[in-house]
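thread from #wetlab-drylab

HS: before we spend reagent money on co-crystallization trials with magnesium ion, can we at least see a predicted complex? here's what I'd submit
DV: go for it
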Amino acid sequence: MNKIETKLVKAGEEILDEAAELLKSGGIAAVPTETVYGLAANAYNVNAVRAVFEAKGRPQDNPLILHICSTAMLYDIAASVPELAVKLAESFWPGPLTMIFPRKPHVPAETCGGLDTAAVRMPRSKFTLALIERCGFPLAAPSANTSGLPSPTSAKHVYEDMNGRIPLIIDGGECRYGVESTVVCFEGIDTVRILRPGAVTPEMLREYCHVVIDSGVLEKLDADAKVISPGMKYKHYSPNAEVYIVKGTDETIVEFLEDMNVNRTGYLGFGSEALPENVTAFPYGRTAEEQAENLFSSLREADGAGCAEVYVRMPDTAGIGLAVYNRLLRSAGFRVIDTCK
Ligand code: AMP
Ligand code: MG
């Protein structure tokens, strides 16, 4: 791919027109959302969508999420909208919930990874909502990272991956949640299946319906497995460093790290561990919210610091912790070390 000049600008009224014109003419741009940064294109323009796949190096069968700014846009995409979806949209949109619907024929198959369904969400970023409105079409926007790397939670992360590959990065500050949206599909009239956990937690969804957590959320899937959500089968969210999940107490984990005795070891922990000198700590935290916010950026930081191995403390899986654990399992290639054994 030929190198192009990448402009990095702050989100605001001043850039709205230019960004909208770029997207209307089939261009692509990175935009802020409350989950992670997205790499946006006109969801109805096949060539623009192809450019997104190319810039990311994303497998063609991994569908994109369509970002909307109004319910009218939802009805332009979805062939049918269950009553439960209307209820969930009222409660969680704009916000980090993506719902899957049968798609109308005019929605390009390329956008949806060849599936006959489309994933739709209304993001909360005021700038990005205004941009979608100005465009008048939904924006297909996967995370704005090179495929396989940790998702970008700041414009700086996007720049690391996309400099020279896309014309425009819009800086809306650090993402509030730090993990991608919750993805659900519908089963019958009163059940959702969580295909990817996120900030809209199973506990929150259970206020409205039955909730099934797909086995792919915490289990390893074969590369050729038939899955509802193709994104779940790919190696994902991995820095260059080798990532391992460590289970145990402060003491057993510290003892394990001391025994490792290798240089350039990174660690993401609760902050209560008395770490040996050869280990570099990166921000993580004790609460699931902090861990979600810090996980991807700390994995990138550990790479920047030249760590060959990064150990990440096992998170609690309640609330948004399920999303943290789901991403972490994939970045660690499902390697969990129990230091109590
Ligand atoms: P990303 O764009 O990186 O946030 O990834 C989007 C996620 O949504 C991937 O895991 C996709 O597999 C999933 N997804 C998008 N569209 C669909 C769809 N139509 N059916 C099932 N999963 C989808
Ligand atoms: Mg992604």
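DV: The chain is about 30% helix and 20% strand.
HS: ok that's useful, forwarding to the group
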